[in-house]
Amino acid sequence: MESVWGKLKKILQNYEELVVLSLLGIGIGLLVSVFEVLFGYGLKAMIDIHESVGSKLLLGLPLAGLLIVYLFQKWGKNAIKGMNLVFEVSQGISRHIPKRLISLMAAGTWISNLFGASVGREGVAMQIGATVSHVIGERFKKYENAKTIFLVCGMAAGFSGLFGTPFTAIFFAMEVLVAGVLKFRAMAPTLTASFSAAWLSSQFGLYKSSYDLVVYAYKLDWKVMIPLVVLGIVFGIVGGAFAWGLGKIKARIAAWIPDPYTRVFLGAIVAAALLFVLHNGRYSMLGENLIAASFQYGTVYWYDWICKFAMTILCLSVGFMGGEVTPLFAIGATLGFCLSGVFGIPPTMCAALGYAAVFGAGTNTYLAPIMIGMEVFGFQYFPLFFIVCSVAYLVNRNKSIYALQQREG
């Protein structure tokens, strides 16, 4: 009788955990979304100012870099680690994510984009989510693996709240901490957090990107399969090369110029000069101009992806704040657009495949890029994204923009 009661008690405890975590996920998602809305509108304001003033703001990039370094040196402490700190907490290397990380990372990204640095935004989005959920999770330590559960939940809310792609956010957060492993124990709060964050953000006008111009009536035969496999190989190499290059160049520059003030000042001078010379700031900021050109049949140069690739690595390596995912989207979209003629696939469809697969290869994730391909471009293209992203993931062989990402399997 005691054995039966013990089993029943354990079952009830499991369901209690499921309900409590799911409800907490809703709260976390809504709270994180508020921060994402503030960050998103602040970022939009910075980009609008840059676009209205023009590339003249690049002249202030070295001073902007010095300001960012000063803010983090004076108040940041270990917050300067950014996403690495999130990984350290997940792995037990560090125990705490300071609340100041939210304001410092947001300010650093705003300043970087205002003056035209070639950086993204998702890093800050996930760090905001991870910080909020970590603070809340410290009050609910009784659940097994609570620390990781709340980190995954928060990152999903952050990604979903800013990009408006809840399905992608769920898979990305669940698989990014340890490549090859899904954090299934975190699924319930991650689901509720992701969808509640996306819903609230949409109420404030932060909607996901969608590209209805991507129309491709395909038949999945060998004439299509072979180009898809080859494209997957190319996208996997490019995404992996970006991750590898970012890690190597960041370490090399830090070794050459140990002082962060000197590093960011000199690096910003070089970056500003290159960004100005290369089509007057075409490769500044997030890269959304390149993504739009790829899906609206605008002007796309064959070397766009190379320039965005190089400028993003340079800006992030010398100390500017932001992220890598939106630049990866831009790199993949422009590369795919340029390769479309070679493989006989419509330019917008090939751009969509590159958009998803280069993102997957760069982050060393598998399910998230397949999902973002369908969520942004249409679920009817699942076979195409599945093939290309699978090949890209296999080709990548464990390289990631996240230096502390672990891998199993």
Written overview of the protein:
- With 409 residues, the chain is mainly α.
- The protein folds into two domains: 202 residues, Clc chloride channel (Orthogonal Bundle); 186 residues, Clc chloride channel (Orthogonal Bundle), CATH 1.10.3080.10.
- Helix content is 71%, strand content 1%.
- Strands 1-2 form a two-stranded parallel ribbon.
- Helix 2 runs antiparallel to helix 4, helix 10 runs antiparallel to helix 12 and helix 13 crosses helix 14.
- The longest helix is centred in the N-terminal third of the chain and has 52 residues.
- The radius of gyration is 21 Å and the shape is globular.
- The model has no long low-confidence stretch (mean pLDDT 89).
- It comes from Dubosiella muris.
- This is Voltage-gated chloride channel protein.
| CATH superfamily caption of the largest domain | Clc chloride channel
Q: In the CATH classification, which architecture of the largest domain applies? A: Orthogonal Bundle
Put simply, the count of helices is 16
Radius of gyration: 21 Å
Query: What distance separates the N and C termini?
Result: 41 Å
Strand order of the largest sheet: 1-2
Count of beta strands:
2
According to CATH, what is the topology of the largest domain?
A: Clc chloride channel
Tell me what portion of residues adopts beta-strand conformation: under 5%
| Low-confidence runs | none
Task: List the keywords.
single chain, 409 residues, mainly alpha, Clc chloride channel, two-stranded parallel ribbon, 2 strands, 71% helix, globular, Voltage-gated chloride channel protein
